[in-house]
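Quick one: structure for this chain?
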Amino acid sequence: MSYPIENQFRKPVEFVSAVVCIACAVGALIYHGTIGGVSIWVTLFTVLLLLANALRRFRQGLAIFKFQMNLRWLPTYKLKSDDIPWSKKELFLGMGFYWDQSHTQRLFLARQPQNKHLRARNSHYETARAFERNHPDHWRSRLTSKQVWWNPVSPLPNVGGDPAIHGVEPHEREVWMSILERVGHTVVLGTTRVGKTRFAEILITQDIHRGDVVIVVDPKGDVELLKRMYAEAARAGRSKDFWFFHLGYPEISDRYSPVSSIGRITEVATRLANQLPGEGQSAAFKEFVWLYVNILSRTMFALGMNPTYELLAQYAADIDTLAEKYFEAWLNKAYPDWLNYFEGSDQEVDAQVKKTGRSRVAVQFLVMMRKKGWSDPIADGLSSILANDKARYQALINSLYPLLQKLTSGKVSELLSPKWEDVNDKRRIFDWDKIMNMGGIVYIGLDALSDPEVAAAVGNAMFADLTSTAGRRYKFGTAYGQGTSESVASSRKVSIHADEFNELIGDEFVPLLNKAGGAGYQVAVYTQTWSDVEARLGSAAKAAQIGGNLNTMIMLRVKNTETAELLTDQLPKVNVYSSTLVSGSTGVQNPEDFADFGARTEDRLSSTEVPMLQPTDLVQLPKGQAFALIEGGQLVKLRLPLPSDESDRHWPASMEAVFTGMQAKYQRYVHQADAQEVPSNFDGGTASKLTTKGAGSGF
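Got it. Here's what it folds into:
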């Protein structure tokens, strides 16, 4: 029989009937001889029936007991690196269950005052903790402080939150999501130190073992994430495919030019101009910058130069020299006798030099070409710039110079503007076509803790380059850039993971998500609140446009209800039932009745429509737990595996200096941000200590 309210918060009285049945069965066996006329077979049959009923009632009582234990105590969930499961067809998310009306009902009942004694932080729990503080060496303190299932006041793990949110379902299992959903892209939301990076490691590990191209953009520089990526690449036999790019360690980093791999010449200007503000009056200046950079890049390509940030910065400040080189090269080819008409002391030249502030040689070329009527698309573009006053024109494109300074200062310039001809520089050079052709695994550390401005500029440039590559793959097929192997080209996906993506996001991110599905991209982004995205873009509409392309949502603990409502507003409302005890009495007026009054007691059931999940439920999640909307809005409650304390033989000894430095920087960042307690595996210790911890960054 089905009841409107499943009463799992009562005492497990089934144990009483089970004990009674067992006692009767034992009594029947002992006193069988004293009952005359009853055969041994009847007695045995009766005993079997009693024991069967005892077993049934015991199992019913045990289910109630386990449910109530689960409300306040969950077993630790750990996974070694070798044990993280993966599949070609599905994506492993963790342990959990699908959330429905029954779980909303149970959570509603668990929070009722009459059931407070079943919650984790009840009066007995607080009494035990107070006794331990006052008597730390007492034998009772040593007993109650043990984290074991039989301890009714076992200390809660250091994860905070409300254990009852996950405890309302004692039968959890592994949760998998169809891999086909990955092309719809994923957003992971959660406040600081609640498990976002650990969850990223679980996804990245599976992507590496599945054989995907894996690109991870890490603005902060999480050492555990880097170590996990390298170890998993080695474990999967792909260590030769691992690439390391880090702005904080240019001396050992691989090199990459964000403007070297393009489909059209205009992309160079677009990638630079898109990083400039384009709202209001800034839009006109942005257009001037685009025009200026486009002319520079077209000229460089015509001269056989490969545009880099360094060259763009050099010639943006001195376009006259670049123009002279092009005019000479073009005229030598088109008009070999041009030197016969090149006049060095013309009155018109002197006036033009004085008026514009341009170099005399460049003005001589302009005057000669105008007089002779010589024309060329690139030369005309250069002429349109050189004919303007130099100081005035530079004021129009003044916003370009700070951006180029960010990208060309110090040793960063060596990474972003690699000198291809320098054979003495052993650092490798890559572009996205090369990475996708070889099936690469790329870790990108932007060192945002040291220089957030440069990190944001480089991150935006990389996303713009990835967007361009996605466009080519979308037009020419997902095999573009992956060689000719049918098995590789038909199956390889590009898995992009962007941690703290609110620090990197720009206008180029919208077309990246729009094109990414058809180009085989699988994007997963991680951030703390959606407000960060809106603040970065400066527009709620643009943020909503990006959010509309992120079909899978995984939300850990968040700190504001506005972010939580991104998930809860997508859920239906359900009915929860409550029981009200009603009792009363009435006087009896008929003298013929043998009673002075009548009494009644009844339970009344009422239902109330409530959201399936409240925003406050997400604010109270323990660390390492999450709600997820997957596969078309199916709500799943997840528990992520903790890192296992294990040594990994795949830690690269050659990178220990990098690990140590990154660890120290990250620890300083956590202290400066006054974040929550840093776990023990972020102790900033020696390199030998770094090799003793297991998978993940912990939480």
